[in-house]
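Incident log, structure service

09:12 report received: a user says their structure output differs between two submissions of the same chain.
09:20 pulled the input from the user's history:
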Amino acid sequence: MKDVISAQGAGNEALISKASFVGFVRKYAMFVALIFIAILFEFLTDGVLLAPMNVSKLIMQNSYILILAVGMLPCILTGDIDLSVGSVLAVVGAIAATMIVQQGFSVPVTVAACLAFGLLVGAWQGFWIAFVRVPSFIVTLAGMLIFRGMTMVILDGNTLSPFPDSYQFIAQKFLVDIPLFAAIPMSTMIVGVLVAVFAAYMFIHNYNQKVKYGIPAGSRTMLFVKVAVVVAVTIFAAYWFTQFKGLPIILILLAALIAIYSFVCNRMVIGRHIYALGGNENAARLSGIKTKWVRFLVFVNMGLMAAVAGLVFSARLNCAAPSAGVSFELDAIAACYIGGASATGGIGTIVGAVVGGLVMGTLNNGMSILGIGIDWQQMIKGLVLLAAVAFDIYNQSKK
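09:34 re-ran on a clean worker, output below:
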């Protein structure tokens, strides 16, 4: 009898271990894929891909896509989509160039005006989607055409440049370019250590909170492994950036956006409402959630993020052009889906969307270093997107 019980116990432990492994694979599949892709291209490019200079440029070149992905994820969580973000990005750059280059406005006034314009765009589209109930695909498709045309009208078919150094600062400069930090030795390493300590504290705090309220939290061994990996990777990344020019300013902005939006989605009421709306709109409405206002605010936020991305993109290129932002909406949407967001809504994370964006950016950068043409790059990116969505559907069918 004891042997039978022992065998059953061993069988149960094996099932639990298998379930834990499957859960781990589903949760961290894109992290593993990103690491694999980076190692593959590091080998194929003879060490160029992960060189400190190229890593910095990789982040700076993909920063606006990552910003758009951070804003796009809440839209996808609600089961919607925004096809206008590339055009909104372009028109924001055009407005900024007109105000600064042609009209002589100051940078702070211009930035404030562009952000306000992004909020108005989001409110305009959110009104039609949330309150008039026009499908988001149609509203944002119309927005894509409207704002692309507005960009051409504002620029009159011309490219405007250059922007002053203060406007380009956030997209092109590094931590050592800030006067205060320039006087601090190893400022990038200090920031890296502080971030590592904060990340370790949050991991441990979250674990203790789960234990306190009886929520399954996993083993302490796994907790310490996660903390050790995060701390080691953070400190090593900070050291790696010091080998070029230090920490890019845009990376600080991205880290702040990721932290803020992750907190909002995971810890705040509005975040829970967004997930609930995407999971089952009727159930969410019956439970007292103001679904129309949640959807409206999601698109207002998307307009704001598109404006931020427009400022960063125009600062990065040091110009505003009528063709700016073409197909950026597709890259942002692909980043969310590759990062684990569900096409049906209600599933996805901010960190996952950023990882998805990095996967696409690493593929682009690696293939460009190897001299692979844009035609083949587009085909490969399309296959990666298809595989990611198919993987999500397969996971859903197994639940």
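09:41 both user submissions now match this output. Likely a transient worker issue. Closing.
09:42 reviewer note: Residues 12-17 have pLDDT under 50 and may be disordered. The CA atoms of residues 288 and 389 lie 32 Å apart.
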